[in-house]
Amino acid sequence: MTIDLEPSTARPERTVPAPLVITRDYSTPDRIYRAGVRISGAGVFLLLVVIGFFLAWSGYPAFQQAGWKFFTRSGFQTLGAHPTFGVLASIVGTVEVAVVAMLVGAPIAIATALFLSEYAPLKTRRTLIAMIDLAAAIPSIIFGLWAVFELQPNVVGFSTWLSRHLDFIPFFKVVSPPLNASIFIAGLVVGIMIVPIVASICREVFSLAPAGEREAALALGASRWQMIRTVVLPFGRGGMVGAVMLGLGRALEETIAVSIILGGSFTVTAHILQHGGSTISQLIAINFGSGGKLGLQDLLLCGFVLFILTLVINLAASAIVNNSRSGAGVDL
Amino acid sequence: MTATLPSTSLDDAEHPQVFTGTPSAGEPGQVDAHDVCAWFGDRLVLETVDLVMEKSKVTALIGPSGCGKSTFLRIINRMHEVVPGAQLAGSVKLDGVDIYGPGQRAMETRRHIGMVFQKPNPFPAMTIAENVLAGLKFSRTSPANKDDLIEESLTKGGLWNEVKDRLGELGGALSGGQQQRLCIARSLAVKPRVLLMDEPCSALDPTSTLRIEQTIKEIASEVTVVIVTHNMQQAQRVSDYCAFFLAEENQPGRVIEAGRTTTIFGSPTDQRTFDYVNGQFG
Predict the structure, then answer these.
(1) Looking at the domain assignment, is residue B103 inside a domain?
(2) Closest approach of chain A CAs to the CA of B88, in angstroms?
(3) Residue B180 included in any domain
(4) Which of A133, A144, A199, A284 makes the best surface tag, with the fewest CB within 10 Å?
C-alpha cells in the first residue's frame, strides 16, 4: 500500500476569499451610551469654538476702530472723540510674567517632586504630599494678598541688589524706580503659586518610573542621583513637560494676584524689575465696566488675544512627543 | 532571636572557611554570610542564615516560594535595604571585608557584587552598546577600548552573535531572552567579583534558558555565581553547591541543608530536603 505524501498535487488550486466585512449590531443601551459620549466629546470642542467665535465677533468693532494698531499700541482710553487703545504692553507683560513664573516655579516644583518621590523619609512623605496638594487649592487672591503685604516688601531689596549688580543684563536694568509693583514681583508670586500643582503632577509621574529599571541602575552601582538621571527623569520627561505646561497655562491667565501687584500702567518695558507693566487678564479685570461700549469691545478683543495665546501654547505642548523612557538621551 | 541551627557553612577542604585576602577587582570573590536575618516591617522572614559561597563556584539557592531565597540574595549586594521598611542583621563578608561594615558604601559594594533580576530590566531607551557600558558610566571609569569591552561582555553573555550588527538598536527592542542576556552582559561589563542571579530564567523560553545556563557555566571561572532557582534540573545542571531554604508554616525562612549539589540531590541528610528535591512538595 502506498500513501501519497505530496499534498500539493492532490489539492486543487484554491482561491483566496475576500476579506470579511464585519458589521456591528449595537444594542439599544450601547447606542445610547455611544451617543452620550459622542455628545460630551463634541460638546467640549463646540464650547471652545463658540467661545472663540463669541470673543472674535464681539471684539471685532474695536478692531475696526483701531485697526492693526491695536497690536502696536498700548493703553485703555476708549472714551472721548479720539480713543486710543491697544494690547501690546499687555501681551509683552503677560509673556514676561509667565517667563519669570516658569523660571522660578518650574525648577522649584521639579526639585520638590523629586524630593517627595525619591528622598523624603517614608513617614513624613505622606504628610508632605497632602500638604502640597492642599497648597494647590489655595485661592490666588490669598497668594496676591500675601504677596502685597509680605513678599513684596522683602523682595524689593533683592530687586535692588539685582539691578545694581546684574544691570548689564537688560532685563535687570532699572530706568525709573521704584522697584515695587513690578513684572518681576508679579512673576515671582505666580511662580510660587504654580509650584504645588506642578510638583504634585511631577511627583505622581516620577513615582510611576518602573521599579525594575530603578533596581537595575542601583544594582549596577549607580548613586541615587545617577539612578534618577538614568531612569526617573527620562521616564518622567513627558509628564514633566505636561505639568510645566499646565503651570504655564495658569501663569498666563493668572488675574487676581497679578492685578493687585501691578499698577495700571501700560508701558512696554523689558526692565522687569521696575514699577509698572500690565498683563492681558489684569487689563481686562481692572478695566471691566469702565470705558463704555467701545471699552467693552476692546476688552473682549483682548480676551480673544489671550484665548489664542493660550491655545497656541497648549497645542505646542501637546505636540511635544512623549518619547520618554528610561535612559533616553541620558549623558551621564 | 535564637541561633539553634547548626552551622550550614559548606565544608570543603580545598577552600578555607575564612578568606582574608585583599579585595581585588576582577578576581572572583568569596562571600561569607553569617547570622543573617531579615525583616520586612516587624515580620521576620529570614532567620540566622550561615552560608559560604565559594570563590569561582556556582551556588544555587533552592526552596519553595516565600522561603527567603531572594531576600537572602538581595542582602548579599545591599539591595534589601532599598525596600522601604526592610531591615537585616548579621554580617556578609566579601573576601573578608564586611560589606555592612562602617564606612562601606552600598554603591561600592554593588559594583563588586552584580545582580541579574528575575524580570529582564535593560534600560529600554538606551542602545544595546549603551546598556553594556551603563555600569561603567556610573562608576565614572572608561575602559581602554569600549568596543572590545562591549564585544567581550556580550560574548560572555551569549548575545554577541545575535546583536553584533545592531549594537545601535534600543535595548527595549530585543526579545525577553535576549534582554536577559543583555542584562547579564551589562552586569559582567563592570567586572564584578560575584554575580547574583535571581531566577534569571523564570520568564524565559527553554532555548533562552539553555543559553543562559551555558553562560553561567562559562563565566564561573571568572566570577562567583549565586543563583536562585525554582527549577531543580537547572540547579543540578549549573551549580557546584546548593543551599536548601525552607520556611515552615508561620516560621521565618532558614537554611535546612547546604553542601555539594551532588550530595544535596543524591544523598541529603534531612528528610525535608529529600522530599523537596524529589518533588514531594513546593
Answers:
(1) yes
(2) 18
(3) yes
(4) A133
CA distance B101 to B93: 9
Report yes or no: A261 and A186 within 8 Å, Cβ to Cβ: yes
Collect all residues from B whose CB is shorter than 8 A from any CB in A.
77, 79, 82, 84-85, 107-108, 110-111, 114-115, 117, 119, 121-126, 130-131, 134-135, 137-139, 171-172, 183, 186-187, 190
Tell me B7's DSSP state: P
Q: Measure A136 CA to nearest chain B CA, in Å.
A: 28
Q: Which residue of chain A is at minimal alpha-carbon distance from B77?
A: A219
Cell representation of residue A33? 451610551
- For A49, counting Cβ atoms within 10 Å of its Cβ (0-12 exposed, 13-18 middle, 19+ buried), the class is exposed
Supply the ipTM of this predicted assembly.
0.86
Q: Looking at the structure, give the CATH architecture of the domain made up of residues A89-287.
A: Orthogonal Bundle (1.10)
Across the interface, do B187 and A212 touch by the CB < 8 Å criterion?
A: no
Rounded CA-CA distance B70/B76 in Å is: 10
Query: Model's pTM, two decimal places?
Result: 0.80
CB B92 within 8 A of CB B99: yes
Domains in chain A: boundaries? 89-287
Mean pLDDT for back-to-back runs of 10 residues, chain A (332 residues): 56 84 88 94 94 93 86 81 83 90 94 93 90 90 89 84 80 74 88 93 92 93 93 88 86 85 77 80 86 87 92 76 52 52
* Residues spanned by the domain of B252: 31-277
Query: Could you say which residues from 176 to 235 on chain A have a Cβ atom under 8 Å away from some Cβ of chain B?
Result: 210, 212-213, 215-223, 226, 230-231, 234
Residue B137 lies in a domain: yes
Number of domains, chain B: 1
Q: Does the residue B20 lie in any domain?
A: no
Residues A88 and A72: beta-carbon distance below 8 Å:
yes
Instruction: Give the closest of B77, B110, B125 to A328, CB-based.
Output: B125
Rounded to whole angstroms, the Cα distance separating A240 from A129 reads 17
A332 in contact with B at a CB cutoff of 8 Å? yes
* CATH number of the domain encompassing residue B94: 3.40.50.300
